[in-house]
Amino acid sequence: MSHHSIDVDGVHYRYPDGTAALEGVSFSVGHGESIALVGANGAGKSTLLMHLMGFLVPTQGSVRVGEVPVTKSTLRDIRRTVGMVFQDPDDQLFMPSVAEDVGFGPMNLGLPAEEVLARVDDALSRVGALHLKERQPYRLSAGEKRAAAIATVLAMCPSALVMDEPSSNLDPRARRRLIDLLATFDHTKIIATHDLDLALELCERTIVMSAGTITADGPTIEVFADDGLLDRSGLERPLGMQGCPVCSERGVIQD
Prior knowledge:
- The protein is α/β, with parallel strands linked by helices.
- It has one domain (5-250): Rossmann fold, CATH 3.40.50.
- 35% of the residues lie in helices and 24% in strands.
- It is built from ten helices and ten strands.
- The strands form two sheets. Strands 6-7-8-3-9-10 form a six-stranded mixed sheet, sandwiched between helices. Strands 2-1-4-5 form a four-stranded antiparallel sheet, covered by helices on one side.
- A hairpin with a 5-residue loop joins strand 1 (5-14) and strand 2 (20-30).
- The longest helix is centred in the middle third of the chain and has 14 residues, at 113-126.
- It is globular, with a radius of gyration of 19 Å.
């Protein structure tokens, strides 16, 4: 399987009750790109991510990873290539220990026990969580759970990472650790997030969604500088691109 692109072509999706969630979504992701997917609640971000992993099937249109279409028959290969970190880490942590959670995927690939153990240690080391190896997941903090959840994906050695709100429920220090960690990954990354400052730091390209459609796709700094676009999309500039309100009130000239 080629890992050099993810292509979404004219994807429509309606939920069983008839609600339209995606309306003709199309975009391509090149190998190694880091892309933010932003929009207000209900814009269709999470629904779109579910299509990339084959959890949902388009009502119309197609999704391809490399040259391989995302279909029921290709899911095993697709999910070895694209790893997803869910919004709630508890959706990924269900075993008695962190080590068992991280090793669950590789073990189910039929890998030798020695390789499974090596992957567990490597993945946990990469997220700075090797010391959590024997801990029970339900006893972890939100930041520790997030690190462990990412490790479960890294242990599968994917080429691309898909993340749904990775910084949600993290305190400022845990959020900073997460951003610093993700900045070290050379994977293709698609990050759905309301945290526009995280997107500004990690993603050179941003796709804006509204009501199930793509309303903008371009360089992150340019997208976030378009106040009209952000307002129409229920967003506002990240704090890193806003002027200091205290300085403005005092009439201080900012560089």
